[in-house]
Amino acid sequence: MSPALRPLATCLVLGMAMSLAGCATQKPYRQNTPGTTPVAGTDEAELWYAMERQETELARSPMRNRDPALTNTSTTWPARPRPAIARTCASTS
């Protein structure tokens, strides 16, 4: 390597080493334990906000099925009787 390029190469190597060291020592924004929320202003916080907004819109949607027979989660499957057509199909097979 020519003596004229040696200081440039040294600066490049030192710059790369410093940038990699900065990536390796960066602390996480938050503790990633259940129940914690992301720090405001981060990409993750924006994703959380967008998903909460979508869930709210879906809960208020007029297209949502509100039939208690279909949405009742207090009973366990197969607590509801099967329709007659299902019994007929099952007995013929």
Largest sheet entry: none
Which percent range describes the beta-strand content?
A: under 5%
Helix share, percent: 40-55%
Sketch the topology as an H/E string, one letter per element: HHHH
State Rg.
Answer: 30 Å
Cα(first) to Cα(last) distance is 84 Å
The total strand number stands at 0
User: Segments where pLDDT lies below 50 for 5+ residues?
Assistant: none
**Mean of residue pLDDT values:** 75
Question: Would you spell out the secondary-structure blueprint of this structure?
Answer:
Layout: H1 6-24, H2 43-60, H3 68-71, H4 84-92
Protein model, in words:
By secondary structure, the protein is mainly α. Helix content is 54%, strand content 0%. The protein is built from four helices and no strands. It has helices at residues 6-24, 43-60, 68-71, 84-92. It starts with 5 loop residues before the first helix and ends with a helix.
Please summarize what this structure is.
The chain is built from 4 helices and no strands.
Key features?
mainly alpha, single chain, 4 helices, 93 residues
